[in-house]
Description:
Beta-Lactamase, Arc Repressor Mutant, subunit A, 3 domains, 16% strand
Amino acid sequence: MVQLTKKQAQEIVDKMMMDIPYNINIMNEHGVIIGSGKKERVGTVHQGAVKALCTGRMVEVWTDGRFEKKGTNEPIVIDHKRIGVIGITGNPDEVRPFCNLVRTTVSLLIEQQISFENQSQAENHKKAFLETLLNHQGAYSQKLIKESAVYKINLLLKTVVLYIKNLKLDDDPIKLFQAHPFFVLAEDTHLIMMQNESTPEVLIERLVEKQPDVLVATGNLEPNIAESYRQAKSAMNVLLALKPAARVIDYASVEFLIHLSHAPLTSQPTAVSKLVDTVDMMETIRSFINNDCSVSLTAAELNIHRNTLQYRLKRIHTLTGRDPRNLLELFELTYGLLSLYK
């Protein structure tokens, strides 16, 4: 059953009294005042409200008593249930015209609050479910299988997880995702789950076409969703570390680099960590790697003179102690970049 809280009641009273020139009280389902323009009345039983709750009709009080003041008392009905009473203090003939307005407004405010709370609960439940799913190993329980069905996930089917960054949720992506389970992992990170024989290429192509900043990583088709998610997330880390021209990456194509990034090859901070605070140096080393160590292609991509590029490469050598023009030392710098995003 829906219940009014003291906080809800007082917020509604404060809001309504900005427009209504009379004191307003809100009573709970027992007739106890839980919100009032006169704080000293909070916690007392309002007899007029008790009568209104019993009869389901407006009760008018024409004389002041010890525990009630003259005015009108109108039941608050939500989903055909009396959850409280709205009272307006004053001569009933004067305050009666405000009754319907106040009651309707209060009911709408309560319904909005209930809707918001239900939505928040649903979102929290979905996040908790997703966390459980993405950390689950081994066989799925019947309970988890049933819960997954609520989100249109069949845990008996193999799944490909798409790990997406920089997605803007306009109408087009929402239409694209309707056929697949879709989750918000963080403000800039979303997951799509494509099951069984579904191929993500068409969906990814449309995403990249419509959203110039989107990045997409995919895991393998796996019987365990957590495994495909882990693969997709690791592939995304490679994409973020090296920043190649491509905006789409799949786990199978970078599995070696993923294992390399997690390998404990040194107990000391990597050489490339000394470049983290120098944006132009980080940009340069990434471009140099992605352009296969071509000076001309790297200079063109960075829109700088070849001599400027040579200066930057020497600067990287000075800062890190590793020469990017030496294949083995460039490999070490590449490992350092990858390990920053493992």
